[in-house]
Protein: Polysaccharide lyase family 1 protein
Organism: Coniella lustricola
Amino acid sequence: MLASLLVNLGLVTLAASPISALAFPGAVGFGSIATGGTGGTSYVVTNLNDSGSGSFRDAVSESNRIITFAVSGYIVLESAVSLSSDLTINGTTAPSPGIGVMAGEVSASDQSNIIIVGMRFRQGSDDPDTGKSAFNMGDAANVILDHCSFAYGQWDTVDAVGAVNITLSNSIIAFPIYQQFGAHVETGPATYFGNLWVSAHNRQPLAKSNTQYINNVIYNYQAAYTTADTSGSFYHDIINNYFITGPSTSSASDRYYQIQSNQYAYASGNYGDATNDGVLNGAQENEIGSATVLSSPWSSTSTSMVKWTAAEAVTNVLASAGALPHDQVDALAITQVQSYGTQGELYGDQSDTGLSNGGYGTL
């Protein structure tokens, strides 16, 4: 459904619609200004090979491309893949059950104007480089990742040190291994909208930037929204998110973690459920650590971006976040969230999930 919707909305033919100010219709946040492969050529990925003609690696090796997929399944990476600038990567065009990459990092570092929709990024321990992440965009600019699924990141699941104008929206960030970190953005500004965060030790996200954090659902956290030792003062709009504890949560109050008085936060409509009783029955939780309280959002676009109450976000994010249709990894994450406190754990390796294909699940 998502594929046909985005095709109908014009994402695939983005090059023919340069008048749009958005990366694609419905795009939100600071990364929505990404132009992707507008005006470029089309490239169809025709096989699941690691390299060579028709491969994903070959597709992203040159700028100014709109990339679609004629195949479905996992692309098993033998080494990290580096993206070029000015790319649109539309995973929703892959035949059911969709497309993903596993066993390596995909990197947009030092690149700009990248649009990625409907992709699965599953690094895992099959990647021997523990210093890499599932998706890296260090020093990148103008990047939007929408309806993507990230899992088994070793360093961070999503890493974006020095990144400018970033959006992570309608995505699933689940089951990081090794350091067990979710996402890390420095510099910014950055937008996180409508995402599902599941079972991480910390960094959901680590927000060392001016940040919009709206309509996210965070489950089985040890530390969720974090600023830590930022060495800088940043502004945070934290609106209508739902924080739900799970078996791995040691302190429910760590939904906001290491946030000092040099941070400025507008917080409204956020809920926390700390009962672990199998029922969603939280209460408002809008005290953001020691942050200096703002009486109104710092960003002029934050209020208009809100789509749901926190409770509505749980329903809608569980139904529609991530690459669609949901595969085994995402289905496991969603099932654990729907237990509302009774299921879930922090995994040390993807194989610990017990899923097929060594824990990666089968596409």
About this structure: Residues 164 and 188 are 4 Å apart (CA to CA). Residues 2-358 form a domain with the Pectate Lyase C-like fold (CATH 2.160.20.10).
